[in-house]
Write a structure and sequence with these properties.
Layout (H helix, E strand, L loop, with lengths): L3 H9 L5 H23 L2 H24 L5 H30 L11
């Protein structure tokens, strides 16, 4: 028979890999950028934005294949690359939005 208290302690003692946490945050932010791009991106920025989105997707795939293989340095560099591509994509969206709505439009840089 399993004791409920021991199950609770086992669940609470599980730690989440910081790289996996960053990868999940990157995936969430990527989704936000994709939604913003669908609503506000101009035709002139779609190609560049697509390149940044593809880079982030590739990084997420590569990180997922390396988690648990003791390649922390590679994972760290990949996550930094993905985060930089995401920032550049958000900056493109911000410029497009400012050009369309003026400088008083809402900012997309809140979570960079």
């Amino acid at each position: 028979m399993v004791n409920e208290t021991s199950i609770e302690l086992d669940v609470m003692s599980v730690t989440i890999d910081p790289h996996a946490r960053r990868a999940r945050l990157l995936a969430f932010c990527l989704h936000e950028v994709q939604c913003e791009a669908a609503r506000f991106a101009s035709a002139a920025t779609i190609h560049a934005l697509t390149n940044h989105i593809s880079a982030v997707r590739s990084v997420l795939y590569l990180v997922a294949t390396r988690v648990g293989q003791e390649k922390d340095t590679e994972i760290e560099m990949l996550l930094e690359l993905g985060e930089a591509s995401l920032r550049q994509g958000r900056f493109l969206l911000l410029r497009t939005r400012q050009a369309r709505f003026g400088a008083r439009g809402p900012s997309l840089l809140r979570r960079i």
